[in-house]
Amino acid sequence: MANPQTPIVSGFGARTTATEVLHGQDLNGKLAIVTGGHSGLGLETTRALAAAGAHVIVPARQPDAAFAAVGDLPGVEIEALDLTDLASVSAFAARVVASRGHVDILINSAGIMACPETRVGPGWEAQFATNHLGHYALVNRLWPALSGGAGARVVAVSSGAHGITGIRWDDVQFTHGYDRWQAYGQSKTANALFAVHLDALGRDAGVRAFSLHPGSILTPLQRHLAKAEKVAAGWIDENGDLADPSFKTPQQGAATQVWAATSPQLAGLGGLYCEDCDVAPLSQDGFTGVRPYAVDPDEAARLWALSADLTGVDAFRPAQSGDSKS
């Protein structure tokens, strides 16, 4: 079988911006949802999509903060959503399904990184819950709107940090010792695997899914890291200024998720992990490319089953899913 993780030579690259990706595209009449769309890469994604004519819904745990960031952008609206609260996810999705009919683009950009040990919901580890489980539930709840039109794309923002670890099947919730970076890496592997299985389930309905590594960018995602840690890593200098020339600007960092969500170059494709506005190659080490375990269909199906069990939601097995946990 041919390796699907083969670059397509898109013509874009690491320094391409989200605006450049959308050059010549008219998104008028398209409805996009961008979680985390008022901060960091999500903010630049919202700006670019709205400028290209899309109507963008920005769901946020703190709507007032979202309104301050994007409330003045034409075509952008803010809705309340807490990804760690399944009732909030269900309520948001119900409002969208009832009022919108069809969603064309869903970009799961919200996330947390390397936070202190935190438990949410029924005791879930916060990074796995926020970065993966909340988005898993959101997509399943939005399925009638995603599958009800002429096709949609779902984009999961993963990271090169997926290379830290695969899914820790023996202790997914880190109940036997917490490591913030292992937990972050696992959640990013989960993002990639989610896209693999969603694409397999959704392609017959015209829904395609992608995951991606946006690159290294200084954003509020690093809020849980002390300045000394970032200096020691070589990211910034003692004055707080960027020290690593390989880092992207936020506009460049948003480009790959916008490309995955909109590019006609990806027509007929799906389930792929992308980086630098192209399909990423397989890699066994380093921070670029994708590890084979993060795009393994069997691992992806196993994670989907676990996620369905934990959340009580599975749009593809409605008679069996039950909603007792939501």
What attributes characterize this protein structure?
single chain, 326 residues, alpha/beta, Rossmann fold, two-stranded antiparallel sheet, 12 helices, 10 strands, disordered C terminus
Helix content: 25-40%
Number of domains as seen in the coordinates: 1
Total number of beta strands: 10
Mean pLDDT: 92
Overall shape: globular
Order of the strands making up the biggest sheet: 3-2-1-4-7-8-9-10
The CATH class: Alpha Beta
- CATH fold call: Rossmann fold
Radius of gyration, taken over Cα atoms and rounded to an integer in Å: 18 Å
CATH architecture: 3-Layer(aba) Sandwich
* CATH H-tier superfamily: NAD(P)-binding Rossmann-like Domain
Strand % is 5-15%
Span from first to last CA?
40 Å
| Weakly predicted, low-confidence segments | 320-326
> How do the SSEs run, as a string of H and E?
HEHEHEHEEEHHEHEHHHEEHH
Question: Your description of this structure?
Answer:
It is a single chain. The protein has 326 residues and is α/β, with parallel strands linked by helices. The chain has one domain (18-312): NAD(P)-binding Rossmann-like Domain (Rossmann fold), CATH 3.40.50. The protein has helices spanning 18-21, 40-51, 63-70, 86-100, 126-141, 143-146, 180-202, 227-232, 250-253, 255-262, 297-311, 318-321, and strands spanning 31-35, 55-60, 76-80, 105-108, 119-120, 124-125, 152-157, 207-213, 272-275, 278-279. The strands form 2 sheets. An 8-stranded mixed β-sheet has the order 3-2-1-4-7-8-9-10, with helices on both faces. Strands 5-6 form a two-stranded antiparallel ribbon. β7 (152-157), α7 (180-202) and β8 (207-213) form a beta-alpha-beta unit. α4 (86-100) packs parallel to α5 (126-141), α5 (126-141) runs parallel beside α7 and α7 (180-202) crosses α11. 49% of the residues are buried.
